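Help wanted!
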Amino acid sequence: MLGICLDNVRKTVPLVHNITNYVTVNDVANILLACGGSPIMSDEPEDVEDITSICGGLNINIGTLNQRSIQGMHRAGKKAAQLHHVLLLDPVGAGASALRTNTAVDLMEQLPFTVIRGNISEIKTLALGSGKTRGVDADVSDAVSDENLDSAVAFVKDFAQRSHAIVAVTGAIDLVSDGQRCFVIRNGRPEMGKITGTGCQLSGMMTAFVVANPDRRLEAAAAAVCAMGLAGETGWSRMAPGDGNSTYRNRIIDAIYNMDGAALDKGAKYEVR
Amino acid sequence: MLGICLDNVRKTVPLVHNITNYVTVNDVANILLACGGSPIMSDEPEDVEDITSICGGLNINIGTLNQRSIQGMHRAGKKAAQLHHVLLLDPVGAGASALRTNTAVDLMEQLPFTVIRGNISEIKTLALGSGKTRGVDADVSDAVSDENLDSAVAFVKDFAQRSHAIVAVTGAIDLVSDGQRCFVIRNGRPEMGKITGTGCQLSGMMTAFVVANPDRRLEAAAAAVCAMGLAGETGWSRMAPGDGNSTYRNRIIDAIYNMDGAALDKGAKYEVR
Amino acid sequence: MLGICLDNVRKTVPLVHNITNYVTVNDVANILLACGGSPIMSDEPEDVEDITSICGGLNINIGTLNQRSIQGMHRAGKKAAQLHHVLLLDPVGAGASALRTNTAVDLMEQLPFTVIRGNISEIKTLALGSGKTRGVDADVSDAVSDENLDSAVAFVKDFAQRSHAIVAVTGAIDLVSDGQRCFVIRNGRPEMGKITGTGCQLSGMMTAFVVANPDRRLEAAAAAVCAMGLAGETGWSRMAPGDGNSTYRNRIIDAIYNMDGAALDKGAKYEVR
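Answered by r_m:
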């Protein structure tokens, strides 16, 4: 069921416009190519409207935002919304600075995001208007676990309803909800947290998945989460003694490159609540 | 014949100033080091004149242009031209937005480029004043093939004459012409298109090749194209089951690192028309 | 003795704010994660004060400086100084342009740096007010060698005293001094110079080491230098035929990921003068 979402990316080669941080942008581009999409990057306000017009989706990531790129996010977002494109927000570091929190909140208020994807701290910041983000990594005390799963699912469903978006909270257990249903996903490995940008990569890839599956957007977002986690598992199984996080980064992108819908269906670990 | 062009890079260690996009800049730096050159990056208008003065060549790539870096391109280009440095233009995404098209055309009108390198859509945009660029990748319908090779060679020769530059159009078949002769090159693999930035890498490396070979610039530009394609072949031969585009990226740069002139002469596949 | 400095990084997971160049930023983030630290990147003047406040150290690298990021460096630096955070300066390319030299000198005059790390050309530029930097790589004629070791050690001690900072000069032989003692370090391999950004990576990692070891800052800075060099040795030992600088980059970060204090103690090659 989720596998077809990946197959549709490879069939339709969705072009994704990324306004993303300069830390992980190369990996975002390569994982988009790996999954069958096509990336284009542009953040200059005078450039973004034309660029987003030829794309199917827009991935806005505020990881290394600046005053110029914030303008670019708004102009690109307005144009993408006019064209009914898929719009994804990755609020990197929301809660860690006033500028990041305010920028993410402003974007949410002014743009009809299709998907909002972040860690639990970032999403709580957006949902509750506050947060205790420790840097850009999730505060461990907030982590979704089997102990707090019921309340976490309720929180994500509620925020999805209020924001009129699919909300994806990623961590040891991932939650993806459109407000009605919630995918609870258990793919992935803890070592993925030792690589910079697995979240950014997922946001880019998720945009492509949702563009390629207009009739099943929730499943597409969940499929991207399962694919990323499964790639983390497959990539880890190929690690040799002495390998570390830099090689692991390559192995994960390689695993996406070699994944097809059947493998995703077989490896995806989720339940729907 | 082409191999000596690579040997000259390793002998003279040309310093190349790159104003290039933040997506693929790390790979551009590493491939420049791999081929024997030395990279330096600077795009701030107040910095670029000093930096370009100590270099032998300037590689301008408009992949993630912004208003500030466009100023940097013009100031660096004027200084480099005064000093008779090698000047290369990589018009990434020309045709995909008005800003990109206009910036590339402005740069061409104001600077005496030694080389212009792009895919067929980008080069047609510059040559014909129009284009149907689909994102930053070449439109398949425009691809140079055995069927349209004669007209493609004639087009590239004509544009080289009119622009007073060496023109390199890269794709499944690569064409490199100074307006008189045209190298038709058949190195490379289609999987290279699944890595972000092989074109950007080639532009950086080509700048070093042309700087290191002032008496045979056309051969040097063609040698860089052959070297990149041959590295794509060598790199692919070292791929293991489960490897994908991220590992392939590393393998290609590694192959350049280990290539010498004799290997390039042996592996280069071209004819001159 | 140095090994405990690495163990302390893994125990305390120091959060490091990096204002660094876009060429090597991804590798800086991954090596910080590899050694047990946590990276965050932000260069927007309106963002940096909040971000640096939640961190333990600030790594300022001027590799692709621009007018906006220079403002960010000063604002972040002032806030970090108020909070008595660890402050590191990596003056990439000082001596290669007036803007870089002036920016590095301005930063030194206005901020109480804990550590200044660069190659011999850059450090001489700062110390002597002049330099013959060839691009961003060290001028070979300046290289620290067994022949000029006594005078080089005296120079580094003197500059450390005058700048009230730990000074780290890296090259074939590395020198790290607080003005009283000088670590003379002989780890590493010459092939590390064929990878872009090993110096930038070291600066990021060194910031984490010094943050995690407030009572032995000199030892911590020296430990970071030894760890980087040892990783270069370990990484090289894992290279296969056909591997080159791109794979070597991964192997070095991987080696940091797998290094513990005992291995560092065993592999560190240094004397104290």
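OP: Thanks! One thing I noticed: Residues 175 and 184 of chain C are 5 Å apart (CA to CA).
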